[in-house]
Amino acid sequence: MKERLAAALVFAVFTLSAADTAPLPARPASGPTPIMKVSEVKRGMQGYAWTVFQGTEPEAVPVEVIGLLRNQGGPNQDIILAKMGGKAIRTNVAAGMSGSPVYINGKLVGAVALQFSFFSPDAICGITPIESMLEINEFDNTRPNDARLPDKVPAKAASEVPVPSQMLASVFRMDAADAAGRDDSFTMRPIATPLGFSGFTDETMRAFAPIFHQLGMSTTVAGGASGATSGPTPAAGWQTALKPGDAVTGILVSGDMSITGLGTVTYNDGKRVLAFGHPFFNLGPVQMPMSKAEVLTVLASQYQPHKFGNAGDVVGALTQDRHSGILGVLGETAPTIPVTLRVRSFGENNAIRREKDFQFHVFVQQQWTPYLMMLTLFNSISGLNDFAQEATYRLSGKVELAGQKNLSLSTMQAPTEMPIPAPMLLAGWWGDKFNRLFANTVSTPRLRRVDATIDLLPERRIATIENAWVGSTEVEPGAQLPVRVFLRPYRGARVEKKFTLRLPAGITKGTHRILLSDADTLNRMQSAAGAMNRFMDLPETVSLINQERSNNKLYVSLVESRPTVYYDDKTLPSLPASVLNVMQTGRSSSRGFLMSPESAVEQLSIPFDQVVNGSYSLKITVK
Fold first, then answer.
1. Which domains does the chain have, with CATH numbers?
2. What pTM value is reported for the model?
3. Which string of b and e fits 237-263 if b means at least 16 CB within 10 Å?
4. What pLDDT, in 10s, does the model give residues 576-607?
5. What per-residue string of b and e applies to 182-211 under the rule 16 or more CB within 10 Å gives b?
6. pLDDT tens digits, residue range 425-460?
């Protein structure tokens, strides 16, 4: 018995030594490579996956095929179930391994892309077949018609392919379970793509956690980015970048703040790159900067293992984000929006104490851009020592658009009794403007650049219109009326403003109203009319936003008993009955209008360094 045990131990030691000394396969290189079809894959086959555990050089990880999971990748799409060895036994199947190429007998089988369960002692993974990933190439219009990935592999025939501004509300309506992204199912699921956040505060991450989950950011990690990612232009040496097994990132924000998604390159034909083996966000055609990456370490965990890394030089652009992976083109430049945010802090004497500039680039996409603008503005405010709960925020900014008038934006936001902090309210207002630009159904906006200045004022600045007084209630056309208006600030003595209102010389006789109001009172009907039109074009959207009044002014309007029609971005006051009848007769359900029985014609605006709320009316009689 002892002799047999000793012999077994000697055999085991010999086997381990032989395994340690067995030569590893050469690292895969860019260029054409043979593939192994799913029909050729058999249980028990052994090969290697290539992925980066630290630094930039990928390492070989032993892989053994367990079998095929039929129809698990979708209709008529099988998944290869496999078990990983080597370092993966300790780390498990980690977020960031998505796309790790798997080779058996020198042939490319596919990409490590799915995981089976948590808390398992075995590193079980799902491999997306390379055949499924090659279908992405059919959507790439940048390649020559005769190009194929990999070489000598015919593209799948088309006949064989199966054909089957409430922004703030979304932050607070999601419950804690949804925000946590809990999933107790035991099915194959895509390996999470770790989104690395650099330059973002803990407060920002907590405040936007529901939005991250809603947009598919299931794993957010600390990440970094080099200065080379501050713009979308590919760096020198892009021609030899992103070999199979290398770490790759898609860039959502770059510069003083960065958001990058980390994965692994599956294949590189010298120009086009396949990666991930599952969707990034499943956006379809995209234009997103693509960069190299360095892996700092792999967090070994039975619950949520993932890679930590830094994004490196931009080397191209992602052009496709599909069900079975992503495709990028080396050397291509993706358009981004350059943003400059200047944050200034004011002291009690109304002098600037400190100012700081933030510069970054934002990914352009109709769903993502408004959220990213909202996120970066909130982070620019909350990450400063000057931040205070009772601070008031004053914003002025300009958005340059190609082929359109520029947007001029101005507002103030002070703390309220609502359970939403003032920086979030300001960020929601800011993001809504970009949401409206991208939400128009006629044309896509092209944003050249965005510049904004945010002032942090040291106290809550809110003033409510309390009452007003006019020198005489019986007047002549063209008369100059002395008016006094009283406002009640959040704390402190009542504020009085005096001004003179000149009545139009052609004003009709009879009773009229002088309306003293905030911006919201005058904006409400026009904004509602714009929201009614499902086919509002970009120029009309820009015009409507530019017409909106700023909430740090008091507006004085003359109100007459004549109807006003609000139509798209147009206001038609004192409309004759004959014209109104024609408009009502030809009214279309898709291009409706709103009508008010009165016409409020703005006469003047009085600037305040406070948020103005409320309204008050004075009656006058014109003789």
1. 25-139 (2.40.10.10), 192-336 (2.40.10), 348-360+367-457 (no CATH), 462-622 (no CATH)
2. 0.83
3. ebeebbbbbbbbbbbbbbbbbbbbbbb
4. 666 666 666 655 545 566 767 777 888 889 99
5. eeeeeebbbbbbbbbbbbbbebbeebbbbb
6. 999 999 999 998 988 878 889 999 999 999 999 889
